[in-house]
Design a protein that fits this description.
Length: 338
């Protein structure tokens, strides 16, 4: 009996030391359900302040360009949808202000007018803004490396020592001749005479240098300095001295200038305008007019021939080219005649 009582006592002590399991009770069945279920992950477009974000399985797209519904969209480092110009990894892109799933944000590609300028947003690089020379639809375009906009102003322009021409439609001219300049397939003026290369070996006391190629009856005018001369006037056709009174060859410089000359050497029985004396003793001057002519713009030239060897040592040019040397190139400008 004593053993049974002892065993019963031990059993009671063991049971009394175990924790009591109580049933969980909630006054709100809905609240109880929320305690045991997780919130659904965000997916798709989500309004965020004044903008939008895009989620996939609870993770937002950030700092990149992504395809969504067949269109490209850009998102900043905070996951906000971009609009207008924006940058990623140092490169610029443009997101539409009017097109996109949320009324804006589609990243544009291709040749586009944005504001008052034209740009090329490369579709092969997710709309990255490009610069430099680009072939688009079989035509050559040039986009500035400064503002990345297309250069559209008609006329000549330089990149380094190389000259190019923009046509009326804004494209770069190729495989043609304009103003006497031969343009190659890459848009650059070709230096068939080698004058550009020759010029680089000379210095000048001014920012200008003049080369006269007697064999080809051509004059090039350069601006810059030794080793970095860029042609500002090229292939100016000239008439040089005849065999009995040749134009001297050598290195000279520009001397004094006269708006009109007559009664001496090449203009003994005629008048020439915009005369600039070369230190060799002869002149750059216009084609000749009747002796006593005061206004070349209202009179017919007496001798308008160029590209010949027929002068009395002087070097004749068109009225406008003679005027350029007279008014633009300063005294002491170096002149190389060869």
């Amino acid at each position: 009996m004593k053993k049974k009582l002892a065993l019963l006592f031990v059993l009671i002590m063991v049971l009394s030391s175990m924790p009591v399991m109580a049933a969980a009770v909630s006054a709100d069945p809905a609240g109880a359900a929320s305690d045991v279920t997780t919130q659904a992950a965000k997916n798709g477009w989500v309004k965020s302040g004044t903008g939008y974000m895009f989620y996939v399985n609870g993770k937002a797209y950030k700092k990149g360009i992504y395809w969504i519904g067949g269109k490209r969209y850009g998102f900043d480092a905070n996951g906000k949808l971009c609009r207008g110009w924006f940058k990623l990894n140092g490169h610029s892109y443009f997101a539409s202000n009017v097109n996109g799933a949320k009324g804006y944000g589609e990243v544009l590609t291709g040749y586009r007018k944005i504001g008052n300028k034209f740009y090329y947003l490369d579709p092969n690089q997710s709309g990255l803004r490009r610069s430099g020379f680009l072939w688009i639809g079989g035509k050559l375009y040039f986009f500035s490396s400064v503002d990345f906009a297309q250069r559209r102003t008609k006329g000549w322009f330089f990149i380094g020592n190389t000259m190019y021409y923009i046509k009326a439609d804004g494209t770069v001219a190729t495989n043609t001749t304009i103003d006497g300049y031969r343009i190659g397939g890459n848009g650059a003026v070709t230096d068939t005479s080698g004058m550009d290369k020759k010029a680089q070996g000379y210095s000048s006391s001014t920012r200008y240098l003049i080369l006269v190629n007697k064999k080809e009856h051509k004059i090039n005018i350069y601006q810059g300095s030794k080793g970095s001369w860029a042609a500002v006037k090229r292939n100016m056709i000239c008439t040089i001295g005849k065999s009995s009174t040749p134009s001297p060859s050598g290195s000279f410089h520009l001397d004094h200038k006269s708006s009109k000359v007559y009664g001496y050497k090449d203009f003994k029985n005629s008048t020439a305008f915009f005369a600039t004396r070369i230190s060799a003793g002869n002149y750059f001057h216009s084609i000749t007019y009747k002796l006593g002519c005061r206004n070349p713009y209202t009179h017919t030239p007496k001798d308008a021939s160029l590209g010949k060897s027929k002068s009395n040592s002087c070097i004749r040019l068109s009225l406008e080219n003679a005027k350029f040397i007279h008014q633009v190139t300063p005294r002491n400008t170096r002149v190389i005649v060869y």
